[in-house]
Specification:
Blueprint: E1 20-26, E2 29-35, H1 37-49, H2 54-64, H3 70-93
Antiparallel strand pairs: 1-2
């Protein structure tokens, strides 16, 4: 006769991460940063537009950040950068932001 012991729940294999890990030199120290591929592309694009490289750009972001993690500071920097560019483009074309104030 089978026992009435509860079965252990089946565990699913963790989903593969969409984050990409890259090594960056920040202020002369090597560290790893995990970002989505789109964020890496945006960061490289910003570095090119500023005529700098990823290490220098991330070092600048690190110097300016508050208590948040470096990864969070990078994401906020990217959003702020593109938000500012969108607002500037809107002023130049006379368009208003579609976002509520």
């Amino acid at each position: 006769m089978r026992s009435a012991l509860p079965r252990a729940p089946r565990r699913r294999a963790p989903a593969p991460s969409s984050l990409v890990i890259r090594n960056i030199v920040v202020g002369g120290h090597r560290t790893s940063v995990r970002l989505e591929p789109t964020m890496w592309e945006a960061l490289r694009e910003i570095a090119r537009q500023r005529d700098t490289n990823l290490n220098e750009l991330v070092t600048e972001i690190d110097r300016r950040r508050d208590a948040s993690s470096l990864t969070a500071a990078i994401r906020v920097f990217i959003v702020d950068y593109y938000r500012s560019a969108a607002m500037q483009a809107g002023r130049e074309t006379g368009l208003r932001s579609p976002l509520p104030a």
